[in-house]
Automatic annotation (TrEMBL), chain A:
Ranges of residues in domain STAS: 1-109
GO terms of molecular function: anti-sigma factor antagonist activity
Organism: Hymenobacter aquaticus
Matches recorded under Pfam families: STAS (PF01740)
Protein name per the record: Anti-sigma factor antagonist
Automatic annotation (TrEMBL), chain B:
Keywords of this entry: ATP-binding, Kinase, Nucleotide-binding, Serine/threonine-protein kinase, Transferase
Name under which the protein is recorded: ATP-binding protein
Molecular function per GO: ATP binding; protein serine/threonine kinase activity
Ranges for domain Histidine kinase/HSP90-like ATPase: 13-131
Record carries keyword Secreted: no
Pfam families assigned to the protein according to its UniProt record, in alphabetical order: HATPase_c_2 (PF13581)
Keyword Kinase among UniProt keywords: yes
Cited InterPro entries: Anti-sigma-factor_SerPK, HATPase_C_sf, HATPase_dom
Signal peptide: none
């Protein structure tokens, strides 16, 4: 798993590349735990190269969502592959998290 | 195609297990979605056994065996950990509550139960066996 970062004044975009499992999710967790993440208005998760997610990866997002909401930071997923989206659907997380088709949609929110 | 594998209890071996299941099922023509679901269910159980049952003790091992008979995929996972999973204690998670309290874990077995057709855990002495079944189309 590689995580690439891009920032603008208001937006932090994390591009996930690889497989997010019980081993690699530790890396993502440490990125999202950094206090400066809450300085942005939006955190966008680019999932184009995210080939796999397990409950450990989902758990990282679940565990940070309220903290983000409390700080007024929107968490938005985009470019999600169908098989990855399906995992969110199996749990019903697609109804609790913001998932949009494209970066343009994410930026427009 | 290799249908059995032994791994040590390190979470770095989760990728090894996923690749093993993927390679075994490659000839069965599954959709991307179904293949990913089966790999995910196996990954969840193996991760639980490595992390919670065996505390990532790399001197401990899991034995996995795969088969497909009459279009039913079966995986049997064996270990000798002292703490065996008790399916009777399973509770459906309240995801909104998980979000509210920032809970990181606790949804893996929900994925397994929703994906697989049958999930069995048995303990014989100190020997634990988990079997997962899924009809493949």
């Amino acid at each position: 798993m590689k995580i690439n970062q891009q920032t603008t004044e208001n937006t932090l975009t994390l591009s996930l590349d690889g497989e997010l499992d019980a081993s690699s999710s530790v890396l993502l967790d440490s990125e999202l735990t950094k206090p400066e993440v809450l300085d942005y208005k939006k955190v966008l998760i680019d999932c184009q190269r995210l080939n796999y997610i397990s409950s450990a990866g989902l758990g990282v997002f679940i565990s940070h969502l309220q903290r983000f909401q409390d700080a007024g930071v929107k968490l938005v997923f985009f470019n999600m592959q169908e098989k990855v989206h399906n995992v969110f659907e199996i749990l019903g997380l697609d109804a609790l998290m913001t998932i949009v088709p494209s970066e343009a949609d994410a930026t427009a929110l | 195609m290799k249908n059995a594998i032994r791994i040590s209890c390190s979470r770095h071996n989760l990728k090894v297990v996923r690749d093993f299941v993927s390679a075994y099922l490659a000839t069965y023509g599954l959709s991307d979605l179904q293949l990913n679901q089966i790999i995910l269910a196996v990954d969840e159980v193996v991760a639980n056994l490595i992390i919670h049952a065996n505390h990532e003790d790399e001197s401990q091992f899991l034995d996995l065996r795969l088969s497909v008979e009459q279009q039913v995929f079966e995986i049997e996972i064996q270990d000798d950990s002292k703490s065996s999973y008790q399916p009777s204690l399973y509770k459906e998670p309240d995801l909104q509550e998980h979000i509210r309290i920032g809970k990181k874990g606790g949804v893996g077995m929900t994925l397994v139960n929703r994906i697989m057709d049958r999930v069995e855990f048995v303990t014989i002495g100190s020997h634990n066996v988990c079997r997962l079944y899924k009809r493949i189309v």
